[in-house]
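queue> pop job 88
queue> type: inverse folding (structure -> sequence)
queue> payload:
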């Protein structure tokens, strides 16, 4: 399975998964259709699936045009998003699986950013990294705002993702990394791994390159929203109960 990252809008990423042998493709969270159509023409592949993580327009905005252009494709999304994702045909729940390019993707129910958010994880059968498509739940250096969920839900959702192997690629849907790390340095200022990562991402972005994908192991070391149970973050929040620590940090980030 090959993965192409396509930047769109001001800071979104669309991910096109392709199987060069079968000349088929799937797309994760198509904000807009034209760049996907153009890329599929370039690689001579037929789109057979849309994997949506949640219903926000900058994740499903291309669905209608893609279904019109590729009428035989199948649109996947969370069961709780019924009626909110254009042309959705498959309604996924925790523990369900999806199949593409001889890979089996596991579905995680990860409410918090929205009440219906899901993530797709394609483990690897080799030492190569697995692939996590997490929408707006987990970002490189951060996490999504809580539009429809609670801090307790988001902690539970992020903890599910935190259990995945360290060498998992984190394909998050926005280029927010540098700003996220600026905030992280305020709340976790003694973290030397975070300091090094910030310098590295500064260099990456100065060259116009994407900071996505990240690696989950790096997120566990440097992302404050996966570190609610560390003494440094508990000290910053002046709290120690996980959901309350997370909620305090998320509120600080909302005002950052």
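queue> result:
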């Amino acid at each position: 399975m090959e993965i192409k990252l396509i930047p769109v809008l001001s800071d979104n990423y669309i991910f096109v998964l392709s199987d060069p042998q079968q000349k088929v493709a799937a797309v994760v969270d198509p904000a807009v259709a034209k760049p996907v159509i153009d890329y599929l023409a370039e690689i001579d592949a037929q789109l057979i699936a849309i994997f949506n993580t949640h219903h926000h327009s900058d994740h499903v905005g291309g669905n209608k045009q893609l279904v019109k252009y590729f009428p035989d494709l199948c649109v996947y999304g969370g069961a709780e998003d019924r009626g909110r994702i254009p042309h959705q045909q498959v309604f996924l729940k925790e523990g369900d699986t999806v199949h593409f390019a001889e890979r089996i993707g596991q579905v995680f129910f990860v409410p918090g950013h929205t009440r219906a958010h899901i993530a797709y994880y394609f483990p690897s059968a080799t030492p190569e990294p697995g692939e996590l498509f997490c929408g707006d739940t987990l970002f490189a250096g951060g996490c999504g705002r809580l539009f429809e969920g609670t801090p307790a839900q988001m902690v539970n959702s992020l903890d599910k993702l935190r259990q995945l192997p360290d060498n998992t690629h984190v394909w998050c849907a926005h280029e927010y990394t540098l700003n996220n790390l600026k905030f992280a340095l305020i709340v976790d200022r003694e973290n030397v791994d975070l300091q090094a990562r910030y310098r590295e991402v500064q260099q990456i972005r100065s060259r116009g390159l994407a900071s996505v994908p990240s690696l989950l192991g790096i997120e566990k070391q440097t992302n404050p929203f996966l570190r609610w149970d560390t003494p440094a973050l508990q000290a910053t929040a002046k709290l120690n109960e996980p959901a309350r620590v997370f909620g305090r940090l998320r509120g600080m980030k909302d005002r950052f």
